[in-house]
Amino acid sequence: MRVPFLDLTIQYASIRDDIHAAIDRVCASQQFIGGPELEAFEQEVAATIGVPFAVGVSSGTDALLVSLMALGIGAGDEVVTPTFSFFATAGSVVRTGARPVFVDVDPATLTMRAEEVERVIGPRTKAIIPVHLYGLCADMAPLLALAADAGIAVIEDAAQALGATYHGRQAGALGTFGCFSFFPSKNLGAFGDAGLVTVHDEALAARIKRLRNHGAEQRYYHREIGGNFRLDALQAAVLRVKLPHLSGWNAAREANARTYKQLFDAAGLGKVVLPVDAPGRRHIYHQFVIRVPERDRVRAHLAERGVGTDVYYPVPFHRQECFAGLTPPDRQFPEADRAAAEVLALPIFPELTHAQQTHVVDVIAECLKD
Ligand SMILES: *Cc1c(COP(=O)(O)O)cnc(C)c1O
């Protein structure tokens, strides 16, 4: 049996006619930049998340970058990020001229901890970027309280968490900004690169709209320097077709996660650490990430038996070559280092079958038997 890590063709087949109709609509209008598809998509996402403003942008990376720019963050400023995330979380900070300050993560959820952040907040700190890793929100209440006390902004990196909730509120509705990615493999995937920023403050929303368009409100009159961070109409039209399906797809991921947990429990594999469900937080399982000793051996064995897996992420920021020198040598990140060596993402896409899940767990059991 073959179990691909991700198969998007099944989803596509199920909505093909609607997608083609949406693409035809944009082609007929020949309006590819801005326009009604983009505006409708922004309103639909804002309503889904429960925020007054949603601004479509070119990618999740640019969502982070433009949020930092809208806060006026730059040279001389510091922004706190977890050391364990996708590269863009910290890369975007450096691109503004500011300095990312890394913190270790919670060992159970691999997300940012207020206790760690508190130790590094200083007079230069302008923002923190909690990451809702794998589809589970960071513990936001203490982070929001800390940020409010310090008078700094909270940029949620919700690229993996569209639909996740934290005590009844949606990821992306909790901080100053919520940053989303519609990279094709995300829970809501475009047909190319796309992203979005959610925001409560009207002036900040207006600034993001200006920044995504080279800092111009009126064409050719530039109040400030932005970039081309626009989300195009074709992507918006595709995403509008998919958005109403998202809660069903997320529910299918959650059901698959429950199945994996039952199968692993039944197999009695003491060496495998399963992802946790935190009280009051809806985990939408963008990824189902287990932790195993000898991860690379297990991964190779799975590949041999036709099972695709991936590793998010093998190298924490404090060990990235491009960030060398940013962190004092005596600062340690033991939880992130341990996670980088142990995490293994299993197939979890909504259309995965019970037989495929059984096969995945059987192969892992076979590999860890002795
Ligand atoms: C995917 C992702 C991003 C970047 O999104 P792109 O759309 O690929 O630029 C940022 N942060 C995290 C945590 C992500 O998973």
Structural features, described:
The chain has two domains: 8-244, Type I PLP-dependent aspartate aminotransferase-like (Major domain) (Aspartate Aminotransferase, domain 2, 3-Layer(aba) Sandwich), CATH 3.40.640; 246-368, Aspartate Aminotransferase, domain 1 (Alpha-Beta Complex), CATH 3.90.1150.10. It is 40% helix and 14% strand. The protein has helices at 9-29, 36-49, 60-70, 88-95, 114-120, 140-150, 202-211, 233-242, 246-267, 295-304, 334-342, 354-368, and strands at residues 53-57, 78-82, 99-103, 125-128, 153-157, 165-166, 169-170, 177-181, 195-199, 216-218, 221-222, 281-282, 288-291, 343-346. A seven-stranded mixed beta sheet has the order 1-9-8-5-4-2-3, sandwiched between helices. The chain has a three-stranded antiparallel beta sheet with strand order 7-6-12, with no helix packed on it. It has a two-stranded antiparallel sheet with strand order 10-11. β10 (216-218) and β11 form a beta hairpin. The longest helix is centred in the C-terminal third of the chain and has 22 residues, at 246-267. The protein is globular and about 70 Å long. The model has no long low-confidence stretch (mean pLDDT 97). It binds pyridoxal-5'-phosphate. The site of pyridoxal-5'-phosphate has 15 residues, from α3 and α4. Residues 59-61, 85-86, 88-89, 131, 157, 159-160, 181, 183, 193, 195 line the site of pyridoxal-5'-phosphate.
